[in-house]
Write a structure and sequence with these properties.
Pfam families: TctC (PF03401). By secondary structure, this protein is an alpha/beta fold. About 45% of the residues lie in helices and about 20% in strands. Helix 3 links the parallel strand 1 and strand 2. About 5% of the residues have low confidence.
């Protein structure tokens, strides 16, 4: 079975879990949307930041919609495999997906044969969370601060291993940018998600990665990894002792990722409106807000959240990342 066939089989299986078979097309239409469970495609392995956010917002969205939402993890291609498969689903609201800065911002610069257009292939539902990027390393990495860390990378180069979740992922895109700014050339180690990458960082099998804050906070609190800097203008309340890259001496590396909900293009207007409303209710849920904030996520408010804001964000991210990443690739 080919990789594409396996992905389609995974998606088909996810869509069939708990599905309620309608007596007829007419009966389904009369019931209204949704009349059966919804599949939320996460284009990475379980345990990573995108998966974490999806599992936080899915239950309250399901409550608002009145139907279960099942998570379908379809990893590969830095998230582009799962997004590509989900984009081909019927635009009826029963398959939606979580994309992010990598799949819908950086991917066009890194995949010349990308099978979707981030700004045209989808109906945007809304931004779920902003997720600052943190430079983290194995807990026993021999450097006291970011200056020493960069110096070690510059000195020993390819002897250090840098993990990432696949070409085009947030950890890959921001990692390439960090390496270019820091003038470092480590050896990349590719995973099918930052969940597996983080496991190997904790065990010391790899040396470092640049990862979204929601994935690193629990491990930093447990002391199983160490952080050198957060790539934001101000420190995060979730990691108050971690300096910003500006404070640590690398002011040009300031970048935050984001995660958002999309659907295949041409959703019926009433279905689109219900999904937008469900995401709004999920992000206003006190439990969701508390969980995301504790993990260091930034919850979009008002005009930063909905379909129009997400469409504008995608367009601006493609324009921003394309020249930066192509320059980084050309410099390798």
């Amino acid at each position: 079975m080919s990789a594409r066939d396996r992905c389609r089989a995974l998606l088909a299986a996810a869509l069939s879990i708990g599905a309620i078979v309608a007596a007829s097309v007419t009966a389904t239409a009369e019931e209204g949307y949704p009349s059966r469970p919804i599949s939320l495609v996460v284009p990475f392995a379980a345990g990573g930041p995108t998966d974490t956010i999806a599992r936080i917002i899915a239950p309250p969205m399901a409550k608002a919609l009145g139907r279960p939402i099942t998570i379908a993890n379809i990893p590969g291609g830095g998230g582009t495999t799962g997004i590509t498969e989900a984009s081909r689903a019927k635009p009826d609201g029963y398959t939606i997906m979580v994309g992010h800065m990598g799949t819908h911002g950086a991917a066009p610069a890194l995949f010349r044969t990308l099978k979707y257009d981030p700004a045209r292939t989808f109906d945007p539902i809304g931004v779920a969370a902003g997720t600052p990027v943190v430079i983290v390393a194995r807990k026993d990495f021999p450097a006291a601060d970011l200056h020493g860390f960069i110096e070690a990378l510059q000195t020993k180069g390819s002897t250090y291993n840098q993990a990432h979740a696949g070409v085009g992922s947030v950890s890959h895109s921001t990692g390439m940018l960090f390496d270019a700014i820091a003038n470092a050339r480590p050896t990349f180690v590719v995973y099918r998600g930052t969940g597996p990458a983080m496991n190997d960082l904790i065990s010391g099998q790899v040396d470092f990665l640049t990862d979204q804050i929601v994935n690193v906070v629990p491990h930093l609190q447990a002391g199983t990894i160490r952080a050198y800097a957060i790539a934001t203008p101000e420190r995060s309340p979730a990691l108050p002792s971690v300096p910003t890259t500006r404070e640590a001496g690398l002011p040009n590396f300031e970048v935050s990722a984001w995660n958002a909900v999309f659907a295949p293009k041409n959703l019926p207007k009433d279905v689109h409106a219900k999904l937008v409303d469900a995401l709004d209710k999920a992000l206003d849920d006190p439990t969701v807000r508390e969980r995301l904030l504790k993990l260091g996520g930034r919850i979009p408010e008002g005009g930063e959240r909905g379909p129009a804001a997400l469409q504008k964000l995608v367009e601006s991210e493609v324009a921003r990342w394309t020249p930066a990443l192509r320059a980084a690739v050309d410099s390798e």
